[in-house]
Amino acid sequence: MRITVNGDGWCYLDYLEYTPLCCDVVDKVPANPTNLTATAVGGSQIDLSWLDNSGDDSDAEDSFTIERSDDGGSSYDALVTVGGVPGTGNTVNYSDTGLSYSTTYCYRVFATNTMGDSGYTTEECDQTGSPDGPAAPTGLAAPAEDGKVTLTWNANTETDPAVLYYMIYRSTTEGGPYTAVAVVFGGTNVVDSNVNNGTTYYYRISAVDTWPNESDMSAEVSATPSEPTAPDEPSNLVVTGKTDSQISISWTDNSDNEDEFIIERKLGASGTYAVLDSVSANVTSYDDPGLDSETEYCYQVKASNAIGDSGYSNEVCDETTGGCVPDLVTIDDADPLIVYTGTWSAQSGWPERYNSTLHETSSNGAAAEFTFEGNTLDIISETQDWGGTADVLIDGVSQGTLNCQGAVQFQVTLFSKSDIADGTHLLRIVCQGNGWVYLDAIRFTGCVAPPEPPAAPSNLTATALSSSQIRLQWTDNATTESGFMIERKLDGGSYSQIGTASMNDETYNDVGLTELTTYYYRIRAFNVSGNSAYSNEAYDTTPEGGQPVEFLTADIGGGWGSITAATGGYDLVLAGREFGGHYSDDNCFFAYVEITGDFDVSMQVVRQTWVPGYNEDWEAKAGLMARWSTASNAEFCAVVSRGEDNGEAVQSGYCEWRWVPGGTVINGGAEAHAEYPSPASVIPDRWLRLQRVGDEFFTYIKATPSDSWTLIKHAYSEFPGVPDTLLVGFTGATMDASNTISIECDVRNLSGFGF
User: Fold this and answer.
1) Which among 713, 691, 573, 719 is positioned nearest to 626, based on CA atoms?
2) Upstream peptide bond of 351 is cis (omega within 30 degrees of 0)
3) What CATH number is associated with residue 247?
4) Residues 557 and 629 in one domain
């Protein structure tokens, strides 16, 4: 629009009026919002609501500004701006979150457009709530001992607010009233030592958070401390199964403080009871194998702990069967009834396996065959990361796959078949060559025909190797033996069994003998069906004792030490960081001789000091070692004794080995023989033995000369080709990386070092 003045007089313009064609014009500030409300929701949120009084045209708002005060309305700060809402009479909502517990907040709101701000709403205030208290603790337990009660419970999981501590309440009356006796910060256990034996105490606990809000009390538990006593006698002794060579028994455990159960057996009702074996606490069954068929055996059981023995259970007697009776039968992988073809490796000395033995193969087509008469079948195996699979066939028909690949598990049933027809069947397990396949045992319900008694060994010879060792050799004429029993006597004495050899063995080393003494030997084979006849008798006389000409020494990897001849042996000083353990190279002192071929060395450790208070997480150790060379990363196999400063000193045997230069050291089984209160800076006597047969090594321990050797570990090189000549001798380490701390080790009664 344009207005033009003609210039012929005055023209006046006061205002213009027009009707817009496309849009509204805002020319007013928005109306004041009203009806503001503030409502607390829990402990950290307040919900706001107000009425929008502006229209859609000249006073329409663009936004609302919310101001908040946390000092009761004395001062306000802008909190947030929210967009306007078209139309008039609308309700606008906003939630203010993340607030503090138990705090009063005040609010006011105004509207805004291009013309300016409206007036404020009325001020509205509200207070956030306080947090809920924590949940009552769960899992409270209170085992009692002599003069104390140990309380444990599950930790509460609240985080906002978190639990700060736990209140411990106690009463001598069930259901209370309770008295607070302890406060526990940062833990879920406490020991109540302010108790009297014979009194029953009732406990409840509560959790308290940082406000502090206290929870409800937990469920009540009770405990009665008492002086230690001998265990209660077991009961309900029964025979649970029998075959022609085994009786199985079970009983009821009536005590909670036994260390073991002692099983006694006698031959028939008129026999005399003698200790047969013992089992650990809480074990309530026992299998007695190797019995004569059609023979009556009687059993009784008692519980035992450090205080004493319980009374005996009831007596139970039963007779072995005269032949095959269908039953649940377990056949060990080492049983000669299982026939292996192809390349298999037999392992022993692994307590995780059934009877501590295992057969394994990764050779494609290698098979294990077993003939049985039964209706159900389980294959007991294990899984490993590098495990593979095998076909399972019964009478030539595939029944599925034995899968040994997976996380490490021992003695697991990896194949089951429950609908096998009556009759005799042939089981074949055939390796598919895609990893390792393991056979631990075969279990079936049915019968297995016992093998014939084994043929007698022959050509027994006895050869004195030193003043304390005689080696036996013989010819194995049997194909069904489970092993050989070794018997010995002195001149004019009676024979008694001194040990056993495994099936197919043809050598045995008798160590720890006395010089200038004649020893007589005989052996016989055995299996489940009985014993063979004896071999011929052989004997030899140990020579007068002496010492090896010289022990060589090596400070391996920076270790150091010394060896000094003493009456009947040597005194050693040993220092070094470690051999084996977590390291791929060794740091130790080594005194040795060179031995070619098989050997069987042993010694008595009569004194071994260690370092209590220094190496608290590890141990000082010393013992026998066979080593490929003196290089710090060389292959080795060792048997050692250790002392540990973790509250006790332990006299123990321990086997470890390295088969690859610089490779991972593997720790084998350990055999503890005694424990002594700490501090005990000198570990008592023990005997250690290290034997080589080809590429296999055997480690043993015993506590006294008259004890039988206990096998710690049968280790074999995974990489055939162990050198003919090895370095064999003594070593030790203190776990001291600085090599400044040493231990002393005195060894006597050496055997097998060239006497």
Assistant:
1) 691
2) no
3) 2.60.40.10
4) yes
Calculate the average pLDDT of the chain: 84
- C-alpha to C-alpha distance for 176 and 150, rounded to whole angstroms: 19
Instruction: Give the structural domain span for 527.
Output: 458-541
Q: Which amino acid is at 461?
A: T
Q: Could you tell me if residue 15 is inside a domain?
A: no
> Does residue 478 share a domain with residue 394?
no
On whether both 562 and 710 belong to a single domain, the answer is: yes
Q: How confident is the model at residue 274 (pLDDT cuts 50, 70, 90)?
A: very high
Number of separate domains in the chain: 6
Q: Look at residue 649 in the predicted model and tell me its pLDDT.
A: 44
> Is 80 exceeded by the pLDDT of residue 454?
yes
Q: How far apart are CA 495 and CA 736, in angstroms?
A: 49
Q: Are 113 and 31 in contact (CB under 8 A)?
A: no
CA separation, residue 85 to residues 38, 64, 90, 95, 109 (Å): 20, 9, 7, 17, 14
The helix or strand, by DSSP H or E, that contains position 224, with its residue range, turns out to be none
> Rounded CA gap, 646 and 140, in Å?
29
* Amino acid symbol at 747: V
Find, among 36, 35, 161, 187, the residue nearest to 102 by Cα. Answer: 161
Look at the pTM and tell me if it is higher than 0.85: no
Cα–Cα distance for residue pair 126/478, rounded to 1 Å: 96
Which residues are bridge partners to 568 per DSSP? none
Among 506, 522, 541, the domain-final residue is 541
Count CA atoms within 13 Å of residue 207 on its CB side. 28
Rounded alpha-carbon distances, angstroms, from residue 322 to 268, 290, 293, 298: 16, 14, 5, 17
Distance of alpha carbon 375 from alpha carbon 643, whole angstroms: 52
In DSSP notation, 152-195 reads E-PPP--BTTBEEEEEEEEESSTT---EEEEEEES-SEEEE-S-
Nearest of 487, 472, 473 to residue 523 by alpha carbon: 487
If asked whether residues 606 and 728 sit together in one domain, one would say yes
The whole-number average pLDDT for the span 496-522 is 88
483-498: pLDDT as tens digits? 899 999 999 899 999 9
Cβ atoms of 328 and 241 within 8 Å: the answer is yes
Can you name the residues that pair with 416 across neighbouring β-strands? 378
- Same domain membership, residue 487 and residue 518: yes
Tokens 């030997």 correspond to 521
Judge whether 7 lies within some domain.
no
569 and 646, same structural domain?
yes
> 240 vs 453, which has greater pLDDT?
240
Identify the helix (H) or strand (E) that includes residue 67. Answer: strand 63-69
**Backbone φ and ψ of 211, nearest 5°:** -75, -50
Output the domain CATH number for residue 632. 2.60.120.200
Q: Cβ-count burial of 317 within 10 angstroms (0-12 exposed, 13-18 middle, 19+ buried)? A: middle
Q: Are residue 178 and residue 215 in the same domain, yes or no?
A: yes
| Residue 26 binned pLDDT confidence (cut-offs 50, 70, 90) | low
Taking Cα atoms as reference points, which of 715, 740, 735, 730 lies closest to residue 583?
735
Is the peptide bond prior to 177 cis by the omega test (within 30 degrees of 0)?
yes
What pLDDT, in 10s, does the model give residues 42-95?
A: 788 999 999 998 877 777 888 999 999 999 889 999 999 998 887 778 899 999
- How many contiguous H segments (helices) and E segments (strands) does the chain have? 0, 56
